[in-house]
Amino acid sequence: MLRMANETHGSPYDRGSADSWYDRPRKPHFYPHGTYNGKAVTEYEMTNEEISAYHQGYDDNEQSGGKKVW
Which pTM value belongs to this model? Predict the structure, then answer.
């Protein structure tokens, strides 16, 4: 069960898409109180559904081709 809706800032989906956007490696995590608010929930503490949501966010951004231009 997802603890956060996919569109919520800090959710597994959001963090996956952000990692792809900033060209970071895959490292499933999320912030239940919003991005960078409090302690991150790491892959070892995530449900299979949350890990899947992270990877879906990463994959969706990879497909769209959106990347941060530095």
Answer: 0.92
Cα–Cα dist 23/20, whole Å: 5
Domain tally, the chain:
1
Q: Report whether 28 contacts 54 (CB < 8 A).
A: yes
Name the residue with tokens 């990463």. Answer: 58
Q: Is 49 domain-assigned? A: yes
| Sole residue written with tokens 């959710």 | 11
Within a domain: 2: no
CA-closest candidate to residue 50, choices 66, 31, 69: 31
Q: Is residue 1 part of a domain?
A: no
Domain housing 47:
12-64
Amino acid at 29: H
pLDDT in tens, 33-49: 999 999 999 999 999 99
